[in-house]
Amino acid sequence: MTGHANLSRDGLAQQVRAQLAVPPSARATRAAASAERGCVLRLIGRHPLELVESVRFEGSPATLVVARTGAHDTAWVAAPDCSATHSHVLYTTSLSSGISGP
């Protein structure tokens, strides 16, 4: 998915909630690069994926990954060099349950 969000540490949870509020059918999409797919799978493990979006994080390119990780959702902001063999997470936060729907 592609996005125009410029996320920041302050308020990241609120920014992610806003991204999740957009219906999946209304989100712009693109094919993920192999390294990006590997990064996403490394981060989420076996948890259900909620959102992947290309964003800017504090002014630099990044990938936002959100997964349902039990009683809450977890959002990771990954650097461009994150891959299946290298987790380069710039920031992570937990979101209250029920934010991303059923």
Throw out a few tags for this protein.
102 residues; alpha+beta; 2 helices; globular
Describe what this molecule looks like in 3D:
- The structure is a single chain.
- The chain contains two helices and five strands, in the order βααββββ.
- It has helices spanning 12-21, 34-44; strands at residues 2-7, 49-57, 60-68, 73-78, 89-95.
- The longest helix is centred in the middle third of the chain and has 11 residues, at 34-44.
Summarize the structure.
It contains two helices and five strands. By secondary structure, it is of the alpha+beta class.
Helix content: 10-25%
Form type? globular
Q: Main β-sheet, in a few words? A: 5 strands, mixed
**How far is it from the N-terminal to the C-terminal residue, by CA?**
21 Å
Q: Output the number of helix runs.
A: 2
- Uncertain stretches of 5 or more adjacent residues: none
The number of E-state strands comes to 5
Radius of gyration: 12 Å
SSE topology string: EHHEEEE
User: Would you tell me the structural class of the helices and strands?
Assistant: alpha+beta
Average pLDDT figure:
85
Lateral strand order in the biggest sheet: 1-2-3-4-5
Taken as a percent bin, the fraction of beta residues is: 35-45%
